[in-house]
Amino acid sequence: MKAVSYTSTGDSDVLVLGEREEPHPGDGEVRVRIHVSGVNPTDWKARQGGGPSDLPRAQVPNQDGAGVVDEVGAGVASVRPGDRVWVWDAAYQRPDGTAQELVVLPEAQVVPLPDDVSFDVGASLGIPALTAHRALTAYEGAAGELAPGTLDGRTVLVAGGAGAVGHAAIQLAVWAGATVIATVSSHEKAELARAAGAHHVVNYREPDTAEAIGALAPRGVDIVVEVNASANAELDTKVAARGATIAVYADAPGSTEVTMPIRPAMQKNLRWQFLLTYTVTPEAKAAAVRAVAAAAAAGALPVGAEHGLPLTRFPLAQTADAHDAVKDGAVGKVLIDVG
Fold first, then answer.
1. Where are the domains of the chain?
2. Three-class SS of the chain
3. Which residue among 5, 146, 216, 252 is least enclosed by CB atoms within 10 Å?
4. What keywords tag this UniProt record (predicted)?
């Protein structure tokens, strides 16, 4: 079978297309024939590492993907050969990501995908949607699993509403009943955030961002889904409601620390929740998978430019170019056609 792998960390030229032996599932495992692999920033960052370093064995990149069940091991009950599925965290602490024709995963990491939900959607879930779900359920007293109505009466601010996580956060929050405000950096990205379903969009490059958000949410926002806390800590504190949660899921390039206004945050009893989808509790991850699967089945997580998430495609042989596109800030979602 064809697979892209690397044996040392470094720039994208360490990625090599080659042939590998077909894997077979053991007990409780599922083999999936990948049709589409999704690329996330975490994929190129893991591949790049801290500098050139030999790996103990070849690593296939990419955490997310979608395809068709090919074989199942003993004891597998949730899927069977021929089922359409999406997968998550394929390459986390494992050598086998989704940039290959066949991947074997534990049953829990293989999720049914309805016939009317495309492989493009399936490959775009994983890291972005599971991260967004945790951000939206991190506030005090939150329902641990999103569903229609669970965010009724809440106002959500999504920073970077045109990014993959921001896009998923908008869609999931709207599906769960929230009023959503998104911040963006351009008119073009504002249109993408609106297409995703944001009720209000604010260009943060224009003056008086806090005033604009405050006019839209006089009581303050209840949840902030934050992509750049280093730049936005003061803004988030200003626009937050009492008891709000600011959920931080990323750090900006070159920024490893955040300074926050302590006294104003104390006065509002704010909660700062830092999160990484790989290391959330098993219970939180399982709830996120269930909720994201339900939202996708309900048609709440579409992708494509008309839905606010433009797609950029590469063949498997150009996986290096796909990684570079994400590193260079491609707007929307980068996908690799594997099958």
1. 2-124+309-337, 128-278
2. CEEEEEEEECCHHHCEEEECCCCCCCCCEEEEEEEEEEECHHHHHHHHCCCCEEEEEEEECCCEEEEEEEEECCCCCCCCCCCEEEECCCCCCCCECCCECEEEEEHHHEEECCCCCCHHHHHCCHHHHHHHHHHHCCCCCCCCCCCCCCCCCCEEEEECCCCHHHHHHHHHHHHCCCEEEEEECCHHHHHHHHHHCCCEEEECCCCCHHHHHHHHCCCCEEEEEECCHHHHHHHHHHHEEEEEEEEECCCCCCCCCCCCCHHHHHHCCCEEEECCHHHCCHHHHHHHHHHHHHHHHCCCCCCEHHHCECEEEEEHHHHHHHHHHHHCCCCCEEEEECC
3. 252
4. NADP
CA dihedral 124, 126, 130, 131 (to 10 degrees): -80
The pairing of beta strand 2-9 with beta strand 53-59: antiparallel
- DSSP bridge partners of 31: 71, 104
CATH of region 128-278? 3.90.180.10
pLDDT tens per residue, range 92-124: 999 999 999 999 999 999 999 999 999 999 999
* In the block, residue with structure tokens 């996986």: 319
Note the pLDDT tens digit of each residue in 206-260.
Answer: 889 999 999 999 999 999 999 999 999 999 999 999 999 999 999 877 777 889 8
Name beta bridge partners: 38. Answer: 64, 335
For residues 280 and 268, what is the distance between their CA atoms, to the nearest angstrom?
A: 26
Residues 313 and 101: their CA atoms lie apart, in Å, by 16
Pairing outcome for strands 221-226 and 155-159: parallel
249 is written with which tokens?
A: 């899921």
Burial profile 57-66: b = 16 or more Cβ within 10 angstroms, e = fewer:
ebbbbbbbbb
- Cα torsion through 244, 247, 253, 258, rounded to 10: 50
User: Residue 323 and residue 47: Cα distance in Å, rounded?
Assistant: 9
- As a CATH number, domain 2-124+309-337 is 3.90.180.10
Cα separation, 60 vs 57, whole angstroms = 10
